[in-house]
Amino acid sequence: MLCPLVCLALFPTDSAAQDALRELNTAIARLTARVTPAVVQIQTDSYSRVGSGGPAVAFGPTTGSGVIISPDGFIVTNAHVVRGATEVQVQLAFVEGPPGRSVIRPSGRRLTGSVIGIDLETDLALVKVDGQDLPTLDLADSEQVRQGQLVLAFGSPLGLENSVTMGVISSVARQLRPDDRVIYIQTDAPINPGNSGGPLVDVDGNVVGINTMILSQSGGSDGVGFALPSNIVASVVEQLRERGVFQRGEIGVEAQSITPELASGLRLAMDHGVILADVHTGGPAYRSDLRVGDVVLSLNDKPMENARQFYVNLYGLVANRVVRLEILRGSERLSKSVTVTVRSDDPERIARLFDSQQELVPRIGILGVAVEDGVQEYLPVLRLPGGVLVTALAVTSNAPAGLFLPGDVLYAVNGESLASVEALKATLSGYASSESVVFQIERQGRLSYVVARLR
Q: Is 196 labeled as catalytic in the residue annotation?
């Protein structure tokens, strides 16, 4: 993408070309100087996932990036940067003073941050530091982003703070899996580990996305980076700021994108759009007489082109809001009003419960939380009262491996009932290394005994 510019710089054909390059160079430098003060480096001590999608977690330092979105210190970053953090440190950018002789600048202020909320499905988090009149960036309207437009990625790749790279928008709406409910802006601006949570900005210095991930065979940037679009960021951040969680709206349906093959087999009148593959019995759509096989033409007068668009437009809607769907049932066009509810399969129901070091039980290698009010609502009906819910596995040097799984409920040790994580720790402290103990557990609705040799 930059090759023509480089060629012009090395082999200028005339003064006009040189002047154009100087103007571009000056514009990029000014844009960088304006954006950089609002970009931060985030360092945490936290529990993080071990392996590819596994249930285990380990404790250690992580580094990422963030962008300040309000003068009083609200910062957007990725959930995986701060998830499970026991301490969050935010390194502000150095504010330029009078020009000096050295190009090496000191680091900016370091502030302690607190995690206001995280959303795992979009991989977004909101962090707060105490501050006033901090430099900020505005969120752009990502619906206006176009393929081929210039963008700059800011952050701390590989821990190298205050870095900037340039590229173009490769795709405005990339799905990593068919009908994925989350979409990304794809860019060839180099993004590496540590860029996570930093802003992808347009030529006006507005944030079009939050850098989230890369696809790479080498482990480094291969020119395929992904940023969460700013409109989704705005929707998630608004709820995180208000209530600490992002509650997704749903109407109780499973939507699929219509393909030509699907349209042919089902004898549909159109070979694109959205079809309802399932309507949940007793849900809002069911009560509004939506049916399996209905084709959704529009949602609140906005034409629906695919299932991803359908879900994204339901994302930010709050509970009890009424939406209007125009559907095609056979050859009949109908209008249906449906009341939005909060999505019941929120993937963070359990994940939100293990974000503090106090829940670590190192002798058996788990993170847990007491089964009590506020936790029970996230669980199915349990067989016994009390207990400790295993929320994740922890990598510790002295833990017996493979005995417990996330979702297990530990009820007793050698017949002694457990009412809290502290009680579990205290009970285990009474047994010596190499001594065996018997746990009574519930796993997927079944009670069993598990023998563990402590270390």
A: yes
Query: Active site includes 272?
Result: no
**Identified catalytic residue from 123, 346, 355, 408:** 123
Q: What is the CA radius of gyration of the chain?
A: 26
pLDDT in tens, the chain (455 residues): 455 555 555 555 678 888 888 888 899 999 999 999 999 999 987 655 555 444 455 556 788 999 999 999 999 999 888 876 778 899 998 766 555 555 556 667 899 998 888 887 888 999 999 989 999 999 999 989 999 999 999 988 776 777 889 999 998 888 776 656 678 899 988 888 778 899 999 999 999 999 988 775 555 556 688 999 999 899 899 988 887 778 778 899 989 999 999 999 999 989 999 999 999 998 999 999 999 999 999 999 999 998 888 987 887 677 788 999 999 999 999 999 999 987 655 545 555 544 544 478 888 888 888 888 667 766 777 889 999 998 877 655 566 656 787 788 999 999 999 999 999 999 999 999 888 899 999 987 888 888 888 87
Q: Spot the catalytic one: 46, 48, 65, 80.
A: 80
280 is catalytic: no
User: How far is residue 441 from each of residues 88, 363, 399, 401, 434, measured CA to CA in Å?
Assistant: 35, 17, 17, 16, 21
Residue 365 Ramachandran class (φ > 0 left, ψ -120 to 50 alpha, else beta): left
Dihedral angle over CA of 305, 308, 313, 317, nearest 10? 150
